[in-house]
Amino acid sequence: MTARAVEQTLALFEPARRPTVPEIKDGYLDLLGEEDPTGAHPGQRLMLSSALALIYERLWRPLGGRLFMGAMGPAKGDELRMALSMLALSPKDRVLDVACGPGNFTRDFARAADAGLAVGLDASKAMLAVAARKSESANIAYVRGDACALPFRDASFDAICCFAALYLIEEPMQALDEIVRVLVPDGRVALLSSCNRGPLPARATNAAVRRLTGVRIFARDELTDALSDRGLTGIEQQVVGLAQFVTARRPNVVENPS
Ligand SMILES: C[S@@+](CC[C@H](N)C(=O)[O-])C[C@H]1O[C@@H](n2cnc3c(N)ncnc32)[C@H](O)[C@@H]1O
Question: How confident is the model at residue 158 (pLDDT cuts 50, 70, 90)?
């Protein structure tokens, strides 16, 4: 993380959230200190483990992808292509990767926006330490923060990705509020999360799966409705196995009702 990338990232902060002395440790800017917004379920706590952070990208994530999306579902390269297509990044864009884990997508976003800025935000020290070690681009910065209380000013990012994380975030609808708040007009959002399938209603599936694993199962229309309720347009959903990719755009012009 270069001094310039840190400076550019801090310039996007709400003035009241800007630390007077930024705490940079293990290659990321830590806003949380001893605070921990990660939920209490074992599946959520696992994300804080240094051992998991080390094997996440090579083993855990590909396996999780297969479990959620099936053997024929998109592999890492396909997911990346889908993310890049949904985010439609231009070289000068500012892109935020919410719950970036070990930076497995953030690094590619930094390459696609090579004259812009890619910021990865996550709550896990272990994940961010790996992310920082693996990232060589000069235009990348990592922040340890809470997805439900983003430190950034309104309308500060051109594109925002949140892959494989909303189902683990304690208050996912609050995270969506924040994502929409910090997105510029005409900005794009890309989500990958769980999706209820089969005969049981999402409420029933969610109750069982969440109790056992900590993973929340979203009803088929829950995320698309949530984005629409928050004023986003151009909403598209692609359901793959037990997962859904969702893209949307913040409208450029506020409709005048008169
Ligand atoms: C399964 S990983 C996803 C990583 C990456 N986006 C991907 O697609 O592989 C989920 C991440 O969500 C993070 N997370 C969970 N709750 C969070 C919160 N409230 N704020 C920020 N990150 C959070 C975890 O620390 C973990 O790194």
Answer: very high
CA gap 198, 253 in Å, rounded: 39
Atom of ligand 1 nearest to the CA of 168: 15
| Pocket of ligand 1 contains residue 106 by CB under 6 Å | no
Does ligand 1 come within 6 angstroms of the Cβ of 251?
Answer: no
- Tell me what pLDDT residue 135 has: 92
Closest CA to 85 of 150, 161, 18, 146: 161
Nearest C-alpha to atom 15 of ligand 1 is from which residue? 169
Q: Residue 165 and residue 167: Cα distance in Å, rounded? A: 5
Q: Is the pLDDT of residue 12 over 70?
A: yes
Most ligand 1 atoms within 8 A of CB, residue of 45, 47, 82 to mutate = 47
Cα Rg, the chain, nearest whole Å: 17
Q: Give the integer Cα–Cα distance in Å for 105 and 78.
A: 12
**Which two tokens mark 142?**
């990592």
Average pLDDT over residues 170-184: 97
Which backbone phi and psi does 138 adopt, to 5 degrees? -75, -20
- For residue 256, report the distance from its CA to the centre of ligand 1, in Å: 38
What value does the mean pLDDT take over residues 22-32?
Answer: 95
Query: In the 8-state DSSP scheme, what is residue 164?
Result: S
* pLDDT band with cut points at 50, 70 and 90 for residue 254: low
Model confidence, pTM: 0.95
